[in-house]
Structure formats: C-alpha cells, structure tokens
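Quick log. Single chain, no ligands specified.
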Amino acid sequence: MLKIKKKDKVIVLRGEDKGKKGEVLEVSPDKEQILVSKLNLATKHTRPTATQPGGIQKKESPLPLSGVMLVCPKCDQPARPRFDRLQTGEKVRVCRKCAEVIL
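-> predicted structure:
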C-alpha cells in the first residue's frame, strides 16, 4: 500500500527542486513515480495543431517515489506516516509527529 495519494502535499527531498512543496497530480504505483504540480518541469517542443499553437511548453516530469516525502496538513511538517485501524476497521494514515489522521 502506498503512503502517498493523489491531492496530497509533498516535499521534494533531492534534485533540482529540493525543499519545494507541491500537490500530487498523479501516482504510478507500478513505476514507483509521482507527478507533482509545478515541480520538475521539462521543456517540450510541440508542433502547431488545429486546436493548439506550437512552441516551447513547460511540462511536469515524473519524480521517483523515494525522492519525496508526505507533508502533514495539520503540523505542515514532513512526516513518515504510519497505518492504524479505526474502530470501524478502516485503515488510515496517521502522522507520527502530531498523531493526526491524514485523509
């Protein structure tokens, strides 16, 4: 089970964007990569089509899952979450620093 999900806030641990925070757009568990908004940008040259003009565009590139860490929404600190079960039997992520449930 992955510790990072879509729409989570993460911080980049290494690379050119080290220390920057962003929201997860897409998670690829089979490739162990994630796409973070406005981080790890690459330039792409595109040809003009009937609907879009051509030119140089900035596009997000995937980051390795091991190069990012989840940020707790309550304490706003990077945290490695643990998994607990609620009384209903539902499995949830819990911040190890502030003990708050991460949804």
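The mean pLDDT is 95.
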